[in-house]
């Protein structure tokens, strides 16, 4: 299944736009309860206005909230981002740390956020257990664990460490494009022959093909089409 994911999504990547570790850290915090697409609409102006941890720490709250309003829960997110900036300035010289144990001490940063930052900003392998990842690995029978930390460790024992970051991207891509929560595109899924949950969604190719999303749709369907 892992090799198949490699073939289906060779170019999988973090779908949040960023150029620095700080930008990625802020973007991941903002992505809670909203989509990466929405965050990417907000961050260009945000990153232009706030370039350093000190900028976030000293932000005018009302102005910052206005920047974040469309992401939802903008007051809480403004609190998180300002607290994040202050903690980085006070404890890490304004720089984003590159160790899991340091990242998880920051306000609003759990293991999921830390692993995204480590894997994509610092090339440190990490497994990102978001809702898609947890749902799919349970659906596939890779683990029965519900707790994200236990899921992370269970999958980490199955897959070589150097593959963790790309595996995370590919599983999340598959969850967004094919293996939907309520109606997965089983009949148009390249992983179908190995999936213990095959049949959860429609198994006819034509019906399932309509459920496949993303710019990779033609590539996915070509791999999954009946031979």
From TrEMBL:
Keyword entries, A-Z: 4Fe-4S, DNA damage, DNA repair, DNA-binding, Endonuclease, Glycosidase, Hydrolase, Iron, Iron-sulfur, Lyase, Metal-binding, Nuclease
Cofactor remark: Binds 1 [4Fe-4S] cluster.
Top EC group: lyase
EC number, UniProt record: 4.2.99.18
Residue spans crossing the bilayer: none
Domain of life, source organism: Bacteria
One term of GO molecular function: class I DNA-(apurinic or apyrimidinic site) endonuclease activity
Catalytic activity: 2'-deoxyribonucleotide-(2'-deoxyribose 5'-phosphate)-2'-deoxyribonucleotide-DNA = a 3'-end 2'-deoxyribonucleotide-(2,3-dehydro-2,3-deoxyribose 5'-phosphate)-DNA + a 5'-end 5'-phospho-2'-deoxyribonucleoside-DNA + H(+)
Positions with a binding annotation for [4Fe-4S] cluster: 179, 186, 189, 195
Residues annotated as domain HhH-GPD: 30-177
Entry cofactors: [4Fe-4S] cluster
Coiled coil, from the record: none
A GO biological-process term: base-excision repair, AP site formation
The family this protein is said to belong to: Belongs to the Nth/MutY family.
Cited function: DNA repair enzyme that has both DNA N-glycosylase activity and AP-lyase activity. The DNA N-glycosylase activity releases various damaged pyrimidines from DNA by cleaving the N-glycosidic bond, leaving an AP (apurinic/apyrimidinic) site. The AP-lyase activity cleaves the phosphodiester bond 3' to the AP site by a beta-elimination, leaving a 3'-terminal unsaturated sugar and a product with a terminal 5'-phosphate.
PANTHER family: A/G-SPECIFIC ADENINE GLYCOSYLASE/ENDONUCLEASE III, ENDONUCLEASE III
Protein name per Swiss-Prot or TrEMBL: Endonuclease III
């Amino acid at each position: 299944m892992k090799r198949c994911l490699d073939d289906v999504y060779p170019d999988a990547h973090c779908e949040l736009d960023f150029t620095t570790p700080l930008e990625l850290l802020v973007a991941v915090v903002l992505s809670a309860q909203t989509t990466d697409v929405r965050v990417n609409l907000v961050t260009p102006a945000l990153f232009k206005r706030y370039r350093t941890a000190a900028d976030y720490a000293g932000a005018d709250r009302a102005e910052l909230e206005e920047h974040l309003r469309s992401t939802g829960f903008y007051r809480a997110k403004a609190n998180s981002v300002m607290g994040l900036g202050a903690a980085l300035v006070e404890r890490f010289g304004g720089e984003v740390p590159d160790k899991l144990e340091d990242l998880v001490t920051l306000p609003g940063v759990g293991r999921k956020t830390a692993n995204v930052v480590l894997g994509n900003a610092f090339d440190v392998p990490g497994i990102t257990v978001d809702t898609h990842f947890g749902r799919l690995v349970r659906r596939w029978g890779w683990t029965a664990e519900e707790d994200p930390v236990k899921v992370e460790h269970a999958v980490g024992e199955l897959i070589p460490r150097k593959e963790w970051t790309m595996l995370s991207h590919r599983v999340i891509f598959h969850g967004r494009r094919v293996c939907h929560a309520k109606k997965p595109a089983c009949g148009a899924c390249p992983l179908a022959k190995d999936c213990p949950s095959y049949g959860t969604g429609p198994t006819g190719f034509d019906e399932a093909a309509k459920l496949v999303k993303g710019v990779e749709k033609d590539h996915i369907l070509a791999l999954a089409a009946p031979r």
